[in-house]
Structure prediction request, 492 residues.
Amino acid sequence: MKFQHHLAGLCLLLASVYPITSARADVELPSIFGDSMVVQRELPVSVWGWADPGEKVTVLLAGQSKSVVADESGRWQVKLDALTANAQGQSLTVTGKNTIELKDVLVGEVWICSGQSNMEWGLGGALDGKQEVDAANHPQIRLFDVPGHTTAVLPRDKCPGNWRICQPSSAGGFSAVGYFFGRRLHEELDVPIGLVGSNWGGTRIEPWTSLSGFRSVPELKAIAEEVSDRELKSQQGENVDVGGGSPAAIYNAMIHPLAPFAMRGAIWYQGESNGGEGESYYHKTKALVNSWRGLFNPELAFYWVQLANFQQPNDNPAGGDGWARIREAQRQALTIPHTGMAVIIDIGEANDIHPRNKQDVGWRLAQWALYQTYGKKDLVPCGPLYSSHKVEDSTIRIAFDHVGGGLVVGKKEGLKPTEEVKDGQLKRFAIAGADKKWHWAEAVIDGRTVVVKSPEVTSPVAVRYAYSMNPVGANLYNREGIPASPFRTDDW
Prediction:
């Protein structure tokens, strides 16, 4: 009896580590495929699932038919040729020993919307939430949400979820930032939009990143080794626990099962839980981007939200408190190709880590996508971004990218468009000499540059702008009404 007991236990252990592929009665698709879905236009479309080993599976969509034989594990995958946008619902048929017919399939643009609570925040909780939800009738926008908050030690093949047509009954709980982003894309591009939400409030960036992503960035070698050791132990049958803070654990359960679904890009609103970091967050952003590009599209567009102004202002001109350093890391990460950043230091709330103005956040993310991903070069993608500086006697001249129609002193209130403040004074500029002592500075717009000086600094070497947790009063914009990003010219 004792031998039989141990044998049964061993069988259970082996089954948990090496799942036994039993004969499947039906061909099966992952949850990312379903009625009312959107598939990505102009890219090869991967369709995959499970069947009996050796079973022939045929996929039919938009007049294309591709067949494949399931491998020894029962996994199969076909790759359809790129499709053109189509707002008319079609059927996607998968046939093996049984037939699956998915109805009302559109072809358009697909984006994943991910991050912590500010991306998870539902449309109903945004400014004017009830009116926005009541007006959310967009039959060509389709919403897919990965429900729950789950983790896994090893990458999973499956997760729950289903596609829903965007209407008041489905939009209210979907990501407000994702919705406003997708709505603007739909209005501007006039093609179907698919939005895939996968979010978890209060999470760090590390759990969303794959092992391969960590391995791609040498500075993150220690994290890569941690994840690799954990996975190896699990594969060897050890009991390994992971939680919402474990590197790669959310990725394994809530991102990996969506791959290799073709997507155009990702929008990302996260960082509060990594808020004490500086340059390390830049390295982690690179790892995240690399890992997701390896899944969905080698040229996946990636646009993130720089953290909003929050908590009480700091009157120390040196700044550097709170989220100042992580915002600088987010700006630094713009060196990663085909990325962009929505600056929102003008629409946060000092007493609420969840600012309700999600409309401008989605709009500013869409501005980047329209300009860079969709080639609308008549747009200016963002507000002024620090480009270079030059010391001129007792002043420093700052040059910017994305000046657009010109630099202005601006004022932003609620959902109203930014107003230019005629004869307004720029605020939140600080200047320092070689002694590294910071002083509030006089800053003046001079053409497409800003000239900064202080009578207390006769030989300046560095400038900082809005470099604090809540840089209240920061008011440099371009004429397009988009705020300048905080920056510093020093590395002290």
Q: What stands out?
A: The chain has two domains: 129-373, 385-488. The two ends are 70 Å apart (CA to CA).
